[in-house]
Design a protein that fits this description.
Shape: globular
Number of strands: 0
Number of helices: 7
Helix content: 55-70%
Distance between the termini: 33 Å
Radius of gyration: 16 Å
Structural class: mainly alpha
Order of helices and strands: HHHHHHH
Oligomer: single chain
Strand content: under 5%
Length: 164
């Protein structure tokens, strides 16, 4: 479990980092700031109070993907919930970290989209567009921020397509 968590998390961080680098110049974002954000992306999952909960959550997703039934041991689900809550409220690429979701900077939005894209890449789903279309309303972004997010998705998809 722990080994799988370490490998999967490192791979995810690496995908996000590569996606961030790909966005150089978008909205005048400089490579150095994109690389720096990519380097620290999800590092909070590697230490408490997040690590233990994310080990359980990552294993649950692994089992689900493999079609294996898995129940958390007693107390683990609460630990997962606390870990996720801490993560969302402690990392700028999550709307929950901001007093208002619309306070997210361009760098925050790009990292968020790169994160979603990395998840889509992990699950071989192509663009994160359908995920975002299904979930965007839960963050209460205003109309302009929603447009900014969809424009960013379009831009990363275009840049990834050029890379192929």
């Amino acid at each position: 479990m722990i080994n799988y968590f370490n490998i999967r998390t490192a791979e995810h961080i690496n995908r996000v980092k590569n996606n961030m680098i790909l966005m150089e110049g978008y909205k005048n974002l400089e490579l150095q700031s994109l690389e720096k954000r990519g380097e620290i992306h999800d590092q909070s999952k590697l230490v408490e109070p997040e690590r233990s909960g994310y080990i359980w959550l990552t294993w649950w997703h692994y089992c689900k993907k493999q079609g294996v039934h898995f129940n958390h041991p007693e107390g683990a689900q609460e630990l997962v919930e606390l870990s996720v809550d801490h993560h969302l409220k402690s990392n700028l690429h999550h709307p929950e970290c901001h007093l208002k979701s619309n306070d997210m900077s361009w760098l925050d939005i790009v990292e968020m989209v790169c994160d979603w894209t990395a998840m889509s890449q992990e699950y071989n789903q192509g663009s994160c567009l359908s995920y975002v279309q299904q979930n965007i309303q839960k963050w209460n972004f205003n109309e302009q921020k929603v447009q900014d997010i969809f424009d960013t998705i379009s831009e990363i998809d275009k840049r990834l397509q050029k890379k192929i």
